[in-house]
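Data card: per-record layout.
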Amino acid sequence: MANRIHSTALLEPGVEVGDGNIIEEHAIIRSGVRIGDGNRIGPFSLIEHRVELGDGNTLHGYASIGTPGEMGSKGDQIAETGAVSIGNENVIREFVTVNFPVRRTLTAIGNNCYLMARTHIPHDARLGDSVVMATNSLIGGGCSLENHVYVGLNAHVHQWVVIGEGAMLGMSSATVKSVPPFCTVAGVPSRFLKINREGLRRRGIPDEEIDRLEAYVLGSGGDATDRLIKIYANFIQENERCLEPA
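The structure for this 246-residue chain is written out next.
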């Protein structure tokens, strides 16, 4: 399928574009960018430096991808090596920013993520698959969000923090410690509220398995060989300064 590129869009020499892409008015794509198949790049979007965009992604207007990592008084930076990697079937809404890595080799977004308007993916951040970030939610440099994480409206996460699989961060929360998998946290600073039972149910996890996880997390039992419990326990062992039930 042929690409549809608006006459006002700017593609510099050296851009690689697959098939079936729609590139809309006044989009700017600079040299070094590689684009797969079936993407839509909305009006006035900017993609620059070494960005690899997969297939079937939708970038709404004014998205900014691959811009220098924000380092405050140290100055904005573009590393000599590294790239921004975005997988497949992601939705990136208006005014989303995705910065170039500074200390790692990648700023990375997986597959099937939904980044609502004005969310920020900073330098060196890594998002797994099926991550949702609600409007105005922000994460600090180097953060890692594992699969199925939900970041609530206007929530903030401190730099270099890890948010475990299936965790949910409440609206307007401020998370300064790593959050174990499957937990719901909220507040300023964030505190453990409960197991993210609804998120697990939506993924088809049986209630009895969730019950065993909850018992383990709250210290009242649970089988350490259970799949969810093993994921939770391994996360606690591998990450320092975790936010756990009081």
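Known properties of this structure: The mean pLDDT is 95. The two ends are 56 Å apart (CA to CA).

See the next section for split statistics.
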